[in-house]
Amino acid sequence: MFALENKNVLVIGLGVSGVAAADLLLLRGAKVTATDCADSSALRDEAAKLRRRGMHVELGAAHLPLRQFDLAVVSPGVPPDNALVTEVRAKGIPLIGELELGYQQSLALNISITGTNGKTTTTELVERVLTANDVKTVAAGNIGTPLCAVADKARRLDFITLEVSSFQLETIQFFRPTVAVLMNITPDHLDRYASMEEYARAKARLFENQQAFDWAIVQSEALAQLKELGVEIPSKVITFSATDQSADFYLDRGLIISRMENWSGPLLNMDEVQLRGPHNAENIMATLAVGRVLRIPHDGIIDAIKSYTPAPHRCEFVAEIDGVKFVNDSKATNVDAVAKALLAMPENENSREPNVWLLAGGKDKGFDYHDLGPLLSRRVKGAFIFGETAEKIRAAWSLFTPCAVVPTLLEAVTEAVKRATPGDVVLLSPACSSFDQFRNYQHRGEVFRESVKALEDSGTKTRGNNSAMRREGRREALML
Fold first, then answer.
1. DSSP structural state of residue 433
2. Do 370 and 302 fall within a single domain?
3. Looking at residue 394, which CATH number applies to its domain?
4. Along the 480 residues of the chain, how does pLDDT read in single tens digits?
5. Taking the mean position of all CA atoms in its chain, how far away is CA 107?
6. Residue 363 placed within a domain
7. Quick one: CA torsion of 10, 13, 15, 18, rounded to 10 degrees?
8. How far apart are CA 432 and CA 435, in angstroms?
């Protein structure tokens, strides 16, 4: 652990995490210099606030005399090959991330959840189960509130419930979860990692400081991936899976079943909860396992899960207009998340034909989009693709479903509405990050939601033109 009082500390990156780290360092008596390679009006406003609190702040391509620093703290959004980060390492200055700083300055045990998909929902579920059963916790980390921002609350908590990203795990040192949860490992962030192996090893760092008496709750498929890489988990392991019936928690025809000693048998019917799809069954299994190892009563866990309402932008039902359902899955920023969304969509009760109009596209993260092909053939009537990755996606998907490139999300919605018929689903599930055309995935989802609301508000006109639109849509679908 690093003593901070009167130490000269450099903070690299002034996003939400960097600012939280700078504030905590100042509170602990450090002399803080903060820097960001960007120089926007928003950053200048933030820099002015930090300077008023006694920090030295440099924006843009500033050259800093690094010999003066005792420690550097880097925000997770700053890539490891950043020039300043590289120079800090070369000078031998200790470098940690915001997550590590928050951990070292906290006085509470933590439950940490990572994975390519499902970590936010699972973090929210775990927080709900703990809070409903009088276990003091707060959700922090990648979910929105940096760990550094809640470090001073930790002494009043039983656990901190953390969503943890691979970016954050790159720069840990002593970080150790009492309960570590790995949801899955599927392709993501391949614009940052050279290979899937490198990405998987970053995720696996969640377990590296655990002890034999800690717990690891791991999806069976992800555990197999780690074993192939020679990664050993030092703690006690519980497995879960929607497809592997040899797991400790598994899914059988809509029932979540446990093999755990003194907790065996059916635990929950998925029809009793508001979450849908096998991926959400795995989110619930992981939550059940956390509750089990914390010795929370069975009924208390189940009641909390049943009362959970899914967060926005995650297969969020927006509206049904003239028999067409509109679903906002803007949080789906990788190919595996889109696959899970398609599997969760309702099928047309009157036909086995594809019934989903898929809206996708955005900023590329280095994926091979061909992997989704067979599922597109089964479920997708057509795709409308927007954003900077549109041509790459169209080239990959057009073999499996009709595709059209459109300039914006709003035009994608408009075109889908023209073609949709009763029983269809218009699904926003982008398979990309949002940063080419939107502030974040929430902004993208809000734009979709508002466009659907506008359709509802003009419902009379829509209904009046519906037949003509469908006829025109059938003609135009042949031209996609």
1. B
2. no
3. 3.90.190.20
4. 678 999 999 999 999 999 999 999 999 999 999 999 999 999 999 999 999 999 999 998 777 888 889 999 999 999 999 999 999 999 999 999 999 999 999 989 999 999 999 999 999 999 999 999 999 999 999 998 999 999 999 999 999 999 999 999 999 999 999 999 999 999 999 999 999 999 999 999 999 999 999 999 999 999 999 999 999 999 999 999 999 999 999 999 999 999 999 999 999 999 999 998 999 999 999 999 999 999 999 999 999 999 999 888 999 999 999 999 999 999 999 999 999 999 999 998 888 899 999 999 999 998 989 999 999 999 999 999 999 999 999 999 999 999 999 999 999 999 999 999 999 999 999 999 999 999 999 999 999 999 999 998 886 344 444 444 443 433 343 334
5. 26
6. yes
7. -20
8. 9
Q: Is residue 145 located within the same domain as residue 208?
A: yes
Last residue of a domain, one of 279, 306, 333: 306
Q: What is the value of pTM for the model shown?
A: 0.85
**Is 297 a member of any domain?**
yes
> Whole domain around residue 62: which residue ranges?
8-93
What single DSSP character describes residue 192? Answer: T
At residue 15, what is the residue type? G
Q: Check which CATH number belongs to the domain holding 30 and give it.
A: 3.40.50.720
Task: Give how many domains the chain has, as a whole number.
Answer: 3
DSSP state of 214: S
